[in-house]
Amino acid sequence: MTLVLSHIGLAVSDLGAAVQFFTEALGFEAGATFSSGDEVADLAEIDGGRAQQRMRYIMKDGFRIELMCWTVPGPLGTPSQSRAHLGLTHLCIQVDDVDAEARRLESYGATTLGRTRTEVHKETEDIIMLCVSVLDGLRIELLQRTPREN
C-alpha cells in the first residue's frame, strides 16, 4: 500500500486575505480557486446537509495547504490558543532570525506573542522559538536553529 501526503486543510474567514498573507508574507505560490457545495457536507461533517465553500491550494517547498472559506454554514469556532489543545495547533517555519522575522510579519498584520519566546540550549545547537498570531488567530511558530561550534 502506498501512502502519499497530499495536504492539510485550514479554515479561514477571508480567503483573499489568507491567500495574500501566505503568498506575500510567507512566499507560498497560489493555485487555482475552487468552489464546492452540498456534495461535501458529509465529508466536512456539517450538520443539515447544507454547505458552500471557496477554497484555494497554496504551495511552498512541496508542502501544500488547502485554504477553505465556508460561506455556509460560515466560519465556526476559534483557533487554539494553547499548544495543549487537541488537533492542529500551529504551523512552524524555520528562519534565520526569529526576532527579525517576527518584526517583518508584523508589517503584514501578525501579532508577536512575546511570552512564547523560548530558548533551548543543547550540546550541538541553540534553538530559539517564538510564536506570532495571524489571520483568524492561527499560530505560526518561528524556529531558529544555530549550530554550536565545538
Descriptive account of the structure:
The chain folds into two domains: 8-72, 2,3-Dihydroxybiphenyl 1,2-Dioxygenase, domain 1 (Roll); 91-147, 2,3-Dihydroxybiphenyl 1,2-Dioxygenase, domain 1, CATH 3.10.180. The mean pLDDT is 91. It has helices at residues 15-25, 98-106; strands at residues 8-11, 29-36, 52-60, 63-72, 91-94, 111-121, 125-134, 138-147. Helix content is 13%, strand content 44%. A hairpin with a 3-residue loop joins β6 (111-121) and β7 (125-134). It is elongated and about 60 Å long.
Keywords:
150 residues, mainly beta, elongated, 2 domains, 2,3-Dihydroxybiphenyl 1,2-Dioxygenase, domain 1, 8 strands
Summarize the structure.
The protein has 150 residues and is mostly beta strands.
List strands and helices in order, with pairings.
Layout: E1 8-11, H1 15-25, E2 29-36, E3 52-60, E4 63-72, E5 91-94, H2 98-106, E6 111-121, E7 125-134, E8 138-147
Parallel strand pairs: 1-4, 5-8
Antiparallel strand pairs: 2-3, 3-4, 6-7, 7-8
